[in-house]
Amino acid sequence: MKNAACLLLFSTLSGLYRPAMAIDLQPGDIVAPPPNRTVVTVSYVNSQNNDLYRNSVNTGADPRLESNAASIRLARTYSIGSLPAVSYLQTGTGVLSTDGSLAAFPGSKGMTDSAIVTAVWPYSNRATRTYLGLAAYLFLPTGEYSNAKAFNLGSNRYAQALQVGYQRPITKSVDAAVAVDGTWFGANSACAAACLSNQNLQLTQKPLYTAQAGPIYKINQTYMVGATYVYVSGGETAFNGTERNNTLVTQRYFVSGVAHTSVGRFTVQYGNDIATMNGFMESNRFIVRYAKPL
User: Fold this and answer.
1) Which superfamily does CATH assign the domain made up of 3-293 to?
2) CA-CA-CA-CA dihedral for 185, 254, 55, 208, to nearest 10
């Protein structure tokens, strides 16, 4: 695709690349934790986006976006009355690289946006393996951001999310887990290059809604595996109040393997997008996590 056409298309879809907005639940996340524990988790995430879609049609633009990020999370479990609860702070660093039809756009390197999260379980029954959890997220604009760049690790705006998760057994060794969430975005008043403008515009975004569901199979006391289907909808952006007609409708999946060992919990995960209406389509996402009680 010619550069001018690529720029025009990117202008229409601008704002639909959000490397830090996924709220994927891992196997075991809906299970209420025991109180009075401090847990540190380190993660590595590699994400690749190799296609750009407009109204469910592949534009053929050959964009290549690759993100490599490492994060650290410090969590503390406790009780609110008789209810299990956990709070954590997560932050990290990363590199966002551009190539292909986006090679003219500079990449990004530095801190990622951070998150403060609190979850509480209104219902928790270990005997029946049944759990209902609620979580509130606050995303902080700590990530590297420049209004002179179209792609940034940071979003230069606050965001809030609410999530509800439910898990129950369906066989002796298999549980079903479902969750829904909504994310509400603050405004980015310093959107220039990402809004294809030589002066700052205000980027706003409508709420983004996600539903995810899948089975979790506990092989034994050490290993378990899971598969999750995710449906995402919403998130249309606007520049200075002018809507961009770029609503997201994305389907994706990921599979997970978990090992509980004497030195901590290891999680390996792989997934990608199945279909998307607008924006960049993720072709690969690979994650490794390690969690250790202190």
Assistant:
1) Autotransporter beta-domain (2.40.128.130)
2) -20
